[in-house]
Amino acid sequence: MSAPAGPGRGTALGADIGGTAIKLGRLDGASRAEREIPTDPDSGSGSLAERLSAAWRELLLPGEAVPPLGIGCAGLIDAGSGEVVTSANLPGWSREPLADRVASLMGRRPVLLNDASAFVLAESRLGAGRAHGAGTIVGLAIGTGVGGGLVIDGRLYEGPRGFAGEPGHMPIDLDGPVCACGARGCLEAMIGTRAIQAAYARRRREATVHTPREIFERAEAGDAAAAEVWEEIGAILGRALTGLTHLLDPDLIVVGGGIARAGERLLAPARRSFAQTVMAPEGLRPTIVPAALANAAGWIGAALRARDEETP
Ligand SMILES: [Zn+2]
Question: Do 197 and 189 form a contact (C-beta atoms < 8 A)?
Fold first, then answer.
């Protein structure tokens, strides 16, 4: 697919390591070519690095020098050492030196970053942010986990130690359910997949676990309990976005991830609770929009991050 060039030209290769598939691609200006290979996490980081490098090489032109390389991965990433510290998608991986392994195969060291940071960078330059002409963006990717990131004045803000942009672990309810991180009532524990499932089971007074997709479909079909769940989850999301707006005054808030496929079922109540609680007057508030790049955002953002490293 091709599109008019966005800000910042140049070629880069990106990859997004998911639980079952690695999405990878080549970015030239704003045009892109992409493909997918299986993750196969059990075969280890050496095998993954080999298969990724081979797939990337197929995207190079004959005789072309290896361009900047970027890899997005869920979990705890040590960008400085280029290690995947831990990742729920890669069970058994512990401080895997993925950047070193890829560097030895490609002759160029890749930039490693969190997949949600990659998501928000891609959305800011080539997705929702581009359409809205936004420079400062908060992105949330809502699924089983709630990831996120910050782009400030067009650049990804990662913090001095690389741990910035974790809105999923902002405390929302001090007495709330225990989060995957061990704390109580984080945003992730309040609006992630498990929270949605629990909210529906509570209303139905039943033990059966329904997927968020089923709960969405039931809401669309007129199930009042299901509709209430999306109202409740959206209202919590809106309050969290108020907090982020008071801190950062963003131009735009982008909501993506699997749960965001509920669209206006989620975003309409989020916008309402946001409007009720945000201090900024109407006209001076960020717009809340759905993500635009679907699941290509991860590899595109990783490629953009790698390109930024070349042109600081
Ligand atoms: Zn947490």
Answer: no
Could you tell me where in the chain the CATH 3.30.420.40 domains are found? Answer: 11-118+296-310, 128-292
Distance, CA of 188 to CA of 233 (rounded, Å): 11
How close is the Cα of 72 to the center of ligand 1, in Å?
Answer: 21
Dist CA 135 CA 35 (whole Å): 29
pLDDT band per the 50, 70, 90 thresholds, residue 9 = low
Ligand 1 midpoint to CA 52 (Å)? 31
pLDDT of 137 strictly over 60: yes
Using the mean position of ligand 1's atoms as its centre, give its distance from the Cα of residue 111 in Å.
26
- Name 83's Cβ contacts closer than 8 Å, sequence gap at least 6: 77, 95, 96, 97, 98, 99, 112
The two beta strands, 137-142 and 69-73, are unpaired
Q: What pTM was estimated for this model as a whole?
A: 0.91
User: 13 C-alpha vs ligand 1 centroid, how far in Å?
Assistant: 32
Mean pLDDT (whole number) for 214-229: 98
Q: Whole-angstrom Cα distance, residue 62 to residue 288? A: 43
CA of 183 to the centre of ligand 1 (A): 5
* Packing angle of the helix pair 224-248, 193-204 (nearest 10 deg): 140
Question: Cα of 181 to ligand 1 centre, how many Å?
Answer: 4
Reported as a single tens digit per residue, the pLDDT across 156-213 is 998 887 778 889 999 999 999 999 889 999 999 999 999 999 999 999 998 889 999 9
Q: How far is the CA of 114 from the centre of ligand 1 (A)?
A: 16
β-pairing, 21-28 vs 11-17, is antiparallel
What is the CATH code for 128-292?
3.30.420.40
Domain 11-118+296-310 sits in CATH at 3.30.420.40
